[in-house]
Amino acid sequence: xxxxxxxxxxxxxxxxxxxxxxxxxxxxxxxxxxxxxxxxxxxxxxxxxxxxxxxxxxxxxxxxxxxxxxxxxxxxxxxxxxxxxxxxxxxxxxxxxxxxxxxxxxxxxxxxxxxxxxxxxxxxxxxxxxxxxxxxxxxxxxxxxxxxxxxxxxxx
Length: 156
Hints:
Protein name: DUF4149 domain-containing protein
Organism: Arachidicoccus ginsenosidivorans
Transmembrane segments: 12-28, 59-75, 84-104, 124-145
Shape: elongated
Keywords: Membrane, Transmembrane, Transmembrane helix
């Protein structure tokens, strides 16, 4: 094996799978499991959720920057399959950042202070965006692994 071979996606590949790990662990596991813990009330669970999802969102933006930088240096047409998958995942994160999370945080605050959720469909929309993001990241991860393998095998 040639020691001079450079990986095509040395940052994007691990960042995509790290993002997938965070997304699955928090959005699809922690989000509902915390409410099953003894002594965790709805108010406490919602407070934890606001904190955890806010932190996840910041981590997602760091990963988006890392992935975007790496993809930029492996040139492809803007409307390539790879870029479309990434752009959709990033767009879902942007929608969550500027609309979903602030709206759900307001609803959580209302519930914490004794109010009720008058917009339960907003939570379904948010979960749908998370599922779309999950699918895009899985497909992007598969794409990057295949390109990484083809690149390395072709040069050995």
